Amino acid sequence: MSLVSGGSDDRAPKHAWSQATNRPGLGCSTQIADVSTADGIAPSNQLGLSLVTPYEAESHLIPSLRHFAPSEIGSSDFIGRCCVDLERLAMTAHANAAERGGGNEYVVEGLAAHDKVGTLVKICISMECWRTMVLFPRGGALEDNEDEYVGLAPLVASNSNVLRASFSMHVETTAIGLLNLMLYRREGADELGREDGAPAVALVDYCARQMAALAVPVSQSLMLQRQKEPQSPTSSASELSQRLQSRTPLGELTDANFESEFKTCISTVATARYLCEHFDALPLGAQNRVLDVHDFVLLMVSLIEEPPWTRRRSVTSKSGETYVVWEKIVDDSWRRIPSSDLLIVTKLEAQPWLALYHLLCNDSCRERYGLDSFRKSQLLRVRKYLNETLLDQLPVLADVMRYLDQLALMAVPESTVAPGSREGNRGSSSGAPLLLEQVDSLREDLVPRGVDWDEIARDQFARIWSKITDATDSDLRRISEVYCGPSSASEDGGRGKILDRHRPEEPLSRPLREVQLRLYSLSKEFSAELGPHIASFRLLPADDSTKQSLAVPTQHGLFVRMKLRIVQQCQENGGNTGDLDVIAPFPVLPMVQPVATVSFCGRPSFDVDLSCNTLDLPNPFEGEMEGAEGDAPTEIPSSLPSREWRQLGLLDENKLVLQLGFKRLSRVSPVQVSSECGSKSMTANSTSCACYGLDRAFLSKPVDEHQ
User: What is the pTM of this model?
Assistant: First the structure.
């Protein structure tokens, strides 16, 4: 049943589920902050993120993905594979899922093809163990007396490793966000059934622990207090700045721990919803834990009654007047909600309702769920929230309302066990559904019993953390390049000093040094023989570009359009044998991905990467080319456009635009390509047919108006 109402009632409020093609943004990849940003997911190229290409994901990043034992977390290998590679994969996957109409989700498909669902589950469990048993064994709730802290946290804080530890904790949120994207489809749930269903059982237990942390009273959870009762909500900017500056390193690490834990717990609600949606695809042991061991039905009831993503607080205006405001988490940020919009359902609010729908309206779940008087009384508590406004936004809940109305009239057995007990029969008429229960073998392997976690914390600090600080940590520079690009880190002799991520755009007005243009094949067969990199060019400022370039005012500032000279880079046996000026149009395959690195003069060096998905040049030859015998040339139809232009970058986003001109060739000849394996000639066929050649290039860049 669709989540979208079939009617055209204009009175229905707008909500996050109004378009069936919208994929909910489930991975909390950004910090949950008290700021207001634009609705929706920002396109990746507006954020300057370091996304991965299909070949890079398939050939290296996905196959090398692995989990780490709690004692290995924080190492350089962990930072490279999880904080850098896994984060890049997650950002690319979310960017692809956010594309209108559904993009090419090659990251999600690659993870499924390489059986990495179980690996992501292991990463989540290992990170949870490290966070709760090594870093903060007591949960980080002793902020008033930091001398009582135990574990790795006080050692890391005393050595100024707060940033490295914070990025390490963020890996858990990243992994659960990727799992949500994979479980969006039933195929992801099918992958959980591998290894005798161990990943499915482990993920169900993991989600139950995280949701239980959200379902406790606020007074008993310091993590929830930080979110629902923020400190100094009416403080001025100066007071807030003073409070942040007065925090100790251990206080900063504690705040990062609560923030990371909350983001992870919020994300697992969506994970649990997908597990309920694909309940029939789960192995029998996981189904038993969903319904009987952890009772996801009543867990969802608790989250509906006390939603952790909604808060109410008092605010004092400048005039001294105090009033109450409501706020909800929308797109990973706390947003103030007007009273008229309080009934609009957000994506997070919809998750427990949808989980209830799949659990209560699935025939197999109804047959196995043992109803008794206690469960009946708890379920009927959500009936009062099912009103017309909610049903307009989530029409599937009409079936839930009908089931609850029938349940109110049903006679059910009295509860024969205490709430929360795992023994006995909770109203089932056929006895216990399982005589043997599958245990969480993944967690037992990663978290063995009888381990001295204090000893592991001391040993890990001596091996990893004590040898570096945030000021001398070169791995932090690698992490910064994920979010800001290579220009975010200063060239200071390898010390890895991190600069402000909002780097000024002044370097773009520097003189241009060169543009490195590389073409990557999107054909697996072609890439297997020659490697992904099939052609390389240097685009240099033309001798007369300075004289002929005129500054043109635009709505984004003053820009100049420079003519570039095309120079082909020749490689032989992995080495550079020199440059070759392109006199005639250089044949270019139609389905290649261009990646350009624009380098500017001056110190420190400043580079900007531009790319697009594919050139997609016209190619009339669908199958084997007619008239092609061996290396014989083939006529190119004159009906094709005589010239094609492709653009990399946008003025309003990248502040740089590279325009490439392609001229239609008269005849098709064997395509000459250069790669790390050397130069080769490819016989003209349907996969290596070039109908256009690169012959022109222009770069538009900003001009410093004050010069």
Answer: 0.65
